[in-house]
Write a structure and sequence with these properties.
With 350 residues, the protein is an alpha+beta fold. The protein has 2 domains: 87 residues, Alpha-Beta Plaits; 242 residues, Rossmann fold (3-Layer(aba) Sandwich), CATH 3.40.50. Helices cover 28% and strands 31% of the residues. Strands 6, 7, 8, 9, 10, 11, 12, 13, 14 and 15 form a 10-stranded mixed sheet that branches. Strands 2-3-1-4-5 form a 5-stranded antiparallel sheet, with helices on one face. A hairpin with a 2-residue loop joins β2 and β3. The chain is globular. The structure holds S-adenosylmethionine (SAM). S-adenosylmethionine binds next to α6.
Length: 350
């Protein structure tokens, strides 16, 4: 859908981004954010659009030229990772436009936890946004009905983002310390913020076999919402992601988003349990595809040092998914450190 906008009164919007706050992306920040905004624009903006990183008076923006940012378009773009403010450009002047953020809880839900191997919150937002944009029902991201699964959720960055967005979410991780740490964090956080909630925990058993622990949470932003049943549901399954049979219903999730193991050691937790990430994905994908609805999408960040984009694309296609875009085009590629050359791949079911 992107392409040159004709000079027929196309409006020009500047999305202020703050690369200084995004040390993790380093020099890739403006182009990476422009790529994310392009995905959202393709899904939410009608008609011709043009998206590119620009500098105005030495400040970085992503410029969006479009006939109209009405309907849900402005709302979708306002929630792109790294967007701090939105302006409409009127000649030499910038008119502030109210950005409509989905975020319904205080931002410390995403920022307060610090631990080795934590996925950067901004990358998590990018991943969820571009994966939702690749589904056949992207509007579900904005209306609160997108069902999210992070099948290797660690201590819950994706879970916290989904809660922030008002969505229901399921997380899976085989490292029992991660579930314990997340449970302690979330209970404390919900209590401190006086959110009406319930938490239940128990063991996971199928066919008499103990397969780990689980936690089920119901929470709402206000007591009234909770009473009226406008609450959110979060489930954390502390078990092996390659065996989701009997635990997650088929065709029940819209997006599977995950930051895959990097094949490097992160202190005492994180990747230590993973075998070769490609082998792990090979055994996990049949289950992930089964729980995905037709028209849903899988989005993964991964380390190019452990898998080439073509290898991942081939793997996803062999499991019946259609890769969105050119996996080797580098638009989301960025260097995290000497051992992590990170990229993102997205694929759709059906
Ligand atoms: C890169 S970390 C994800 C970090 C997470 N996004 C966060 O911010 O906390 C990858 C995760 O994959 C998990 N993992 C590895 N093998 C797994 C398996 N077979 N089943 C479930 N989780 C697994 C690891 O325990 C680790 O937490």
């Amino acid at each position: 859908m992107s392409g040159p906008t004709e000079e027929r009164g196309a409006a020009e919007f500047l999305l202020l981004i703050a690369p200084s706050a995004n040390r993790v992306y380093a020099d890739a920040a403006p182009s990476l954010m422009a790529a994310e905004i392009r995905c959202l624009a393709d899904a939410f903006v009608d008609g011709e659009i043009e998206v590119e990183p620009v500098r105005v008076a030495d400040v970085e923006y992503v410029r969006v030229r479009a006939g109209d940012l009405g309907g849900s378009a402005l709302r979708a773009l306002s929630n792109a990772s790294g967007v701090h403010a939105v302006y409409e450009r009127l000649g030499d002047l910038l008119r502030p436009v109210r950005a409509e953020r989905l975020d319904r809880y205080p931002s410390d839900l995403l920022t307060i936890q610090k631990y080795p191997g934590k996925t950067n919150e901004q990358l998590t937002r990018l991943l969820l946004n571009v994966t939702a944009a690749a589904t056949t029902r992207p509007e579900r991201l904005l209306d609160g009905t997108l069902a999210v699964l992070d099948p290797m959720c660690g201590r819950g960055t994706t879970l916290n983002l989904a809660l922030t967005y008002g969505l229901d979410v399921t997380g899976v991780d085989v490292d029992k310390h991660d579930l314990e740490a997340y449970e302690t964090f979330l209970k404390t956080w919900m209590r401190q913020h006086r959110l009406k909630h319930t938490v239940s925990t128990g063991s996971i058993r199928t066919g008499g076999e103990h397969r780990g622990r689980r936690m089920d949470v119901e929470v709402a932003p206000t007591k009234e919402d909770f009473k009226a049943g406008r609450s959110q549901h979060l489930t954390y399954l502390g078990t092996d992601t390659t065996r989701l049979d009997g635990l997650v219903r088929g065709a029940s999730v819209d997006v599977v988003v995950t930051d895959t193991p990097y094949g490097v050691q992160h202190g005492s937790h994180g990747d230590r349990i993973a075998r070769n990430p490609l082998e792990l994905l090979e055994s996990a994908l049949p289950g992930w595809v089964r729980v995905l609805r037709t028209g849903g999408a899988v989005g993964m960040s991964y380390n190019r040092h452990v898998a080439a984009p073509e290898q991942l694309a081939d793997l996803l296609e062999r499991h019946g998914l259609t890769v969105v875009g050119d996996p080797a085009d580098d638009r989301f590629r960025h260097r995290v450190d000497a051992s992590i050359d990170r990229d993102v791949v997205v694929a759709r079911k059906g």
